[in-house]
Design goal:
It is built from 5 helices and 8 strands; from the N terminus they run αβββαβαββββαα. The chain is of the alpha+beta class. Helix 2 crosses helix 3. The model has no long low-confidence stretch (mean pLDDT 97).
DNA sequence: GCGACAG
DNA sequence: ATCTTGTCGC
C-alpha cells in the first residue's frame, strides 16, 4: 500500500524543486481541488473560477478506489492520484490552484499543495483548517489579521483570520508562489472562513461521494 | 515512554 | 476524512 521510507525519500528529493517566487504569468483563472471518501472509494473534484468575479467556469471529477491509507505527513500519496486525474480532465488548467492541505508548512517542507504544484508545474497554495507542524501566536480576531508560522526558526506559513471571531486557517506556499502573494489571493477569494473555491469543491466532492458511490 | 499528528 | 442532532449566533 505505502512504503513509508520510500515515500519520505520521494518528498526529500522533490522538495528541492519547490519555487517560492510569484507566478510568472498573470492569474485570471483560479482553481481548487478536494477529495472526499466513502469506504475505500474516493472522488476528487476540481473547479475553476474567474478571479475577477469568482464566477464558476468549469468543473471536473474523478472516482476510483484507493488502497493507500492516510498517514500524517504523507497525505499526498493518498490524494495526489485523485487530484492529478481530475485536474487533467479540465479543458483549461488554472493559473493558480488552491489545495486543501499544507504547502511547505510540512515536516519536510513538501505537503500536498507542494507535491501537486511540482508534479504539474503550476502555482499552488496550501490552505489547511488545522496545523500539522510549527509554532505561532494566535492572530488578532479581525478579518485579515495574521501571524507567522515557524518551525526550527524557519518561516513556513501564515495563520490567517479570514473572518472576524472565527478560527484562523493555515496558509503556506505550495509551489511557484511567495507568502505575500499567497496572502493576497487567499483574502481576495474568501467571504467566510474557507476560500470560496475550496468551499465549492469540498461540498461538490462530498455530494458525489454520498450519491454516486 | 508520552503526546502530537493536514485529510 | 467519516460517523452524527440539535442548537447558538452573526
Amino acid at each position: 500500500m505505502l512504503n513509508l521510507g520510500k515515500a519520505v525519500e520521494i518528498q526529500n528529493r522533490l522538495r528541492t524543486r519547490v519555487i517560492l517566487q510569484p507566478p510568472d504569468a498573470p492569474v485570471n483563472l483560479i482553481g481548487a481541488c478536494d477529495v472526499s471518501f466513502k469506504s475505500h472509494y474516493g472522488v476528487a473534484v476540481c473547479a475553476t473560477f474567474n478571479l475577477h468575479d469568482l464566477m464558476l467556469v468549469e468543473t471536473s471529477h474523478h472516482i476510483m478506489p484507493t488502497h493507500i491509507p492516510y498517514v500524517p505527513g504523507l497525505l499526498s500519496f493518498r490524494e495526489l492520484p485523485f487530484i492529478i486525474r481530475a485536474l487533467l480532465k479540465l479543458q483549461r488548467m488554472p493559473n493558480l490552484l488552491l489545495v486543501d492541505g499544507h504547502g511547505i508548512a510540512h515536516p519536510r517542507r513538501f505537503g500536498l499543495a507542494s507535491h501537486v504544484g511540482v508534479v504539474l508545474n503550476i502555482s499552488t497554495i496550501g490552505c489547511a483548517k488545522s496545523c500539522l507542524i510549527g509554532e505561532y501566536k494566535p492572530p488578532h480576531l479581525t478579518r485579515g489579521a495574521y501571524s507567522w508560522l515557524y518551525d526550527d526558526g524557519e518561516k513556513i506559513g501564515l495563520v490567517i483570520r479570514t473572518a472576524t471571531n472565527v478560527n484562523p486557517i493555515f496558509v503556506s506556499p505550495g509551489h511557484r508562489i511567495d507568502f505575500t502573494t499567497a496572502y493576497k489571493f487567499i483574502l481576495r477569494t474568501t467571504k467566510h472562513r474557507i476560500p470560496e473555491p475550496l468551499r465549492y469543491v469540498d461540498i461538490a466532492s462530498r455530494n458525489i461521494a454520498t450519491k454516486s458511490i
